[in-house]
Amino acid sequence: MMKSHAITAMMIGALTVCAAPAHAEPLWRDIEAGMAAEEVRALYPLNPGEGRKVEHHQRNTELHGFMTIGKCKPRVEIIHPQGQVTGIRIWVRDEGILKPTCTEEARLALFEKFGSPDMDNTRRSILPAHANRARESLTWIRPGMTVEWLGRGPSQFAAWSIEYRAAPSGAASEL
């Protein structure tokens, strides 16, 4: 009887070691948390053409012209500070008056995709003179991913960013 338990335990152990790990959900398009920086460089080589530009740096990879929101072409940063992807940042700065603004389109797209945010840490001013200091901070926590919207200023001079990060295990249960 002891032998059969030992053999069963060894078989279960062998299956556990041999089982292939499940793929993580992509943070953005084909980029997954934990992906090696070399894999990112292979997916996004330099000189991609068609009005696009790729810049590889030690801590991140910057993509220009790979995304359009409304009339804006936000910058996409694939963040890999230790050689592995930890997040994605999509952002626009100094839009307005002479350039098109796309703040509401980007913000509404997040609400359409993820619904109501799980956390709202927005700071507002009741004084109209300080409206440009308002900072909107919304966070969505989904299985395996945290999405954060950071917006600032009135919509015609807005700057915003969306950050996709791998959620720490158990983050959804902490809500």
Description:
This protein has three helices and ten strands; from the N terminus they run αββαββββαββββ. Strand 8 and strand 9 form a beta hairpin. The N and C termini lie far apart (about 45 Å). The chain has an eight-stranded antiparallel beta sheet, with helices on one face. Strands 1-2 form a two-stranded antiparallel ribbon. The chain is of the alpha+beta class and about 180 residues long.
Strand order of the largest sheet: 3-4-5-6-10-9-8-7
Low-confidence stretches: 1-23, 171-175
Span of the ends, CA to CA:
47 Å
Strand content: 25-35%
Percent of residues in helices comes to 10-25%
Radius of gyration: 21 Å
Q: State the total count of DSSP E strands.
A: 10
What integer is the average pLDDT? 78
Order of helices and strands: HEEHEEEEHEEEE
Shape: globular
- The oligomeric state of the chains shown is single chain
